[in-house]
Please model this.
Amino acid sequence: MAFDFDVIIVGSGFGATVLAVDQSNKNKTVFILERGLWWLTPELSAENPMPPYLKSHPTTQPIQYWPRPDHRRGLIDFLSVVKATGVLGDLQSFANGIGDFFSGRKRPQPLYRYHSFDDADVVTASGVGGGSLIYSNVTLAPFLDPNTNTFPVMDGWPSGAPLTPADYAAGLNWMTNTRNKPPLPPKEVVSKYPNALQTALTPSDPRLMGRARFLRDAATSPSLPANLQSEIVKPWGPLLLQINEADPTSPATNHNYCERQGRCFLGCLPGARHTLNKTLLKQLPLADQNRVFVRPLSDVDFVEPLQGGGYTVHYKGLDDDKDYHPTAKTVILAAGTLGSTEILLRSRDKNSGKLVLSDKLGTRFSTNGDFSGFITVDQDKLQYPIYATRGPINMSHVMFREGQILVNVEDAGIPPMFASLVQQVLKLTAQPAQPSAVLGLVSALWNDAQLPDYADPTAMQTESEMLMNVCWFNCMGTDDASGTFDLHHGRLRLRFNGKIADHPTFQKAESILKAMATAMNGRYQSFPLWEGLAPFVSRKLAVTHPLGGCPMGGSSTDGVVSTNGGVFNTSAGAQTVHSGLYVADGSTIPGPLAANPTLTIVSQALRVAAAIP
Model:
C-alpha cells in the first residue's frame, strides 16, 4: 500500500531530532508530531531574527514567547505555562476555565508538564525541541571506571544494553558536528567573564562564578569528613555545556553568547543556548513540504499496525480538535519517558491483540537519583557572594562513589524571577515542620505581591541580593529502577516497589550536602517536597531526569525494545521485533545514570538510527 510518509516521528526532543536528521539525510519523507508548539524569546534582532520558515508559516507553525520578567511578575507568567496532571490538573483546568470565561482569552499552550504521582513528581517539556527547551545544557557521560573501562551504573543492565565509550564518543561527535552547523563544541562556563578561561583557574579563584566557587571550596575543604574525601571519584570540574561562549581571539564569533543571566530553562535572552528547535530549523528541509514537516499541537493517542506492514498513528489536533490518522512504513516513538510509555500502553490496549508487546512494558522506571537541597550561609560568615541567580543553570560538578552508590553533585542556578519566593520559602522551612508553616507560606506568597516595608533593609534587595548567600545543588544518583507505569482509569500511574525515598542513594546525597554545609559554615535546608511542607507533603521526590518504562534488553523477557530500539513482538519469538516500530528516548534506558541523561539518549539514538534499514 502507499503510505502518507516514509517515517513518522512522535516527539521532537533529542532522540527524535537524531532520527529526524538521519532519516531526512537518507531522502525519506519525515512527519514530526509534537504536542507543544514553537517557543522563541521576544528579543528578536539582526543577530537573532525570526526564522524565515516560521515567519512564512504563521498558521501551521504557531509561536509563543518565553516568560520575560526577571522579577516576581515573571513567576506569574511562568505558572501560566505549567500544565499539571491528575487531580492537580483537574483543579487547574477548572480554575483556568473560570478565568478564561471572565477574561475572554484562552490560556496559553503549556511549556512545562507537571506530573504528580504518589511518591514522586515528574517535570517534562512540551514544545518543538522537547526537553532541550528546559534542560540545563549539560553534556555528560556517566562515571567511567578507569580499571574496567566500563560504566558501573550499567552493571545490572540486560545483556547487550550497556553503552560503550565508543558510543559516547559518537554521541559527542553528533552534539558537536551534526547538531550545529558550523560545528560548535560544548563550552565550559564557570567564570564571571569569558576571558577568564584564557588562563588557568586556581582553587577558590575570584574569577569563578560564586556557585561554582562554592562547590569547589566545599568539595576540597579540609573540614569535609575524610570518608567523603576518599569517595570522590571525579574531583570538582566544569561541566560541558551546549552554550555559545564569547571567544576573545575571534571577534567574528562573538554573537549571542552566554551573559550569565541565569534564565536557561526560561528563555535565554541572548539566544546563546543550542536548543533543538534551532537544530530542526537549520538541519532539516522544512521549507520543502514534500520532505519534512513538523506538526505542532498534535496529541498522539495510539499506534495501530496495518495488515501487510506499516502503521497508522492516531492523533488529535489541539488547535482544531480534529482527529487525524496518517500512515507510515516506519514509526519512531520519541515522546520522552512518560510520553512513549503511555502511547505504547494505550497502543497495546486498543489494538486487541494485534500489537503484542513485552510484559516488561512500563517497568524499570528510574528517578535517576534526582535529589536537591540548599545550603544557606549567614551573612557574617559569608566569605564571598554566591549569587544563585547568576550563571548557567548548572556549571560544575563533583562525583562521589560508595560501593555501588554513585552521587553526582552539581551547583544549580535559581532564575531571578523565583528569588523572592525561594527566599521566603527558605525562611519558613528553617523553622521546625508544622502545619502553620504551610499556612505561613501561603501568607508569604500573598504578602510578596504587596508593597515592601521601606524601613527594612532586607526588603530593598535586588533579586540577586536575595540569594547572594544561598547555593542550590542538584544531585543525581543510583536508585534501583523499581518504578512501574500502568494506565489507571485512562491515566498514567506510577508506583514503586516500596518507598522509593528510603533508597540509600537519597540518604547518601543528603548526607553529602549536610557535610558540605558544615564544612562551609552554613546550614543545609531540604527541598520543600522532601521535608519543608510536612505533614502535608513529606519525603516526595522531584524528578527532572525520568528514565525507563520501555527498557531495552537482550530479548522480550528482559526488555520492551532491543538494544537497537526495535519494539519486541513477543508473539513471534523472544528476540523478534515489530518491523518498522522503534523507541528512541529516555524511556529505553533501563536504569539510573547518576548523570544528566542527554548524551546517553543521543548515543543510544544513534544506535537506533544505524539499525533502521
Q: What stands out?
A: The two ends are 18 Å apart (CA to CA). Residues 189-252+368-480+495-541 form one domain. The mean pLDDT is 90. Residues 85 and 116 are 6 Å apart (CA to CA).
